[in-house]
Amino acid sequence: MPATDSVSPPVILGNEPGSFPWSVLAERHPALIQKVRDAFPYGPEQHRALDALLKNCAEGVIEPLPADADDRRQWEEWGTREYVGRSWFDVPWLWAEGYFYRQLLEAVGYFGSGESRESGGGGQSGRGDGAWRGIDPFRPFKLAELDAPETDEELAALDDLVSEPEEDQARALLHGSLWGNRADLGFRLSGADEGGEAAGLVADDSEALWSLLRSARPAAGPVCLVADNAGRELVPDLLLLDHLLTRGYSDRAVLHVKPHPYFVSDATTADVVDALRRLTRAPGAAASYGRRLWSALAEGRLVVRAHPFSCAPLPYAAMPGDLRDEFASATVTVMKGDLNYRRLVGDRLRPPTTPFADVTAYFPGPVAALRTLKSEVIVGLDDRTESALVAAEGQRWRTSGTRAVIQVSSVQVSSVQVSS
Questions:
Q1: Cα(279)–Cα(284) distance, integer angstroms
Q2: Model pLDDT for residues 316-332, shown as the tens digit of each residue
Q3: CA gap 181, 179 in Å, rounded
Q4: Residues whose CB falls within 8 Å of the CB of residue 367, separated by 6 or more in sequence, listed in order
Q5: How far apart are alpha carbons 95 and 315 in whole angstroms?
Q6: pTM
Q7: C-alpha–C-alpha distance, residues 322 and 54, integer Å
Q8: Which parts of the chain have pLDDT scores under 50?
């Protein structure tokens, strides 16, 4: 359905048993609660709170944050006023996922104020004496991936990459960022075979992206990259930013991360530091990348941002004015990963052939999406591609993580009404 139609495509909910969103709410979230519980020696209060959250997710309704939570008013503006008292399965799936992670952080005491407190409305209470304040419950999983032997293999590939022509380096680093923890695919300079990354890429505007970057030299504005995951997925994002800075595509880059842990592996400032340390202590060319990036941060050529809206359970169409101004000033904003894609195009059941430019026309500047498909939302495909995918896989291609898109829109049409 074109974005200009008067009838909005339906927002994705999680209330259809057996659907992908339903499985996330009913199966993945409970399993994650147990995984977090086992990852730290939490005390009895945290255990009770995690048990209560587990029961609430399965049988209960959405509850408010504690009355003295610093961000309670913000979350009320983001939706709790409307959704408290309703089933997790009957509110927008994007919102339910985001609020689950906020409540999980509450349960483990991440926002602890230094003393026990009870919820003012039945929500999870603050945990313990504040000892667990600021402790990322997902950190063990992030570090395990970052320190895996596969990371050494991927970083070793940089030794060969640095001697290749710039065009090959650019293509490899872009694909490394796209495929995330399959970053090794991005360093295959000979080109992918039919069963590799080329077959997985179902929309490819990479030349449009490079043309946009080349035309901006010397760039009038920064390049913004809105990060997705930490660990082995953040490293290639940093490598791509280094390439853009050292090759003169931009004098300045801005890396947007989450202000606090979110969606298990989403990158925070601490994760950026961990990734840089991993690079600088690696042998060979990887260390050179790490040192350049470290210096770029110290000199202000690379800036890390952690805007509160990065953890909002809302589409980017609802972004606040200051964030809109920042994206408007960028040569291009690169949105990484599945969650950012859902927020960029709206978490709605649009036909896959809906033009990417139509649903991103609200965005204040040129925007690119680098995304492997791990949820049902998809736009910007041609009829032939969609038909071939459905014939080969049914609907599995939407969520398997084996397909990807590079999509670019450089024209914003303010008169187009986009349903978010």
A1: 10
A2: 999 999 999 999 999 99
A3: 6
A4: 327, 332, 333, 334, 335, 344, 360, 408, 409
A5: 10
A6: 0.91
A7: 37
A8: 1-6, 114, 116-126, 183-196, 413-420
Q: What's the pLDDT score for residue 128?
A: 56
Residue type, 193: D
- Look at the block and give the residue holding tokens 């587990």: 54
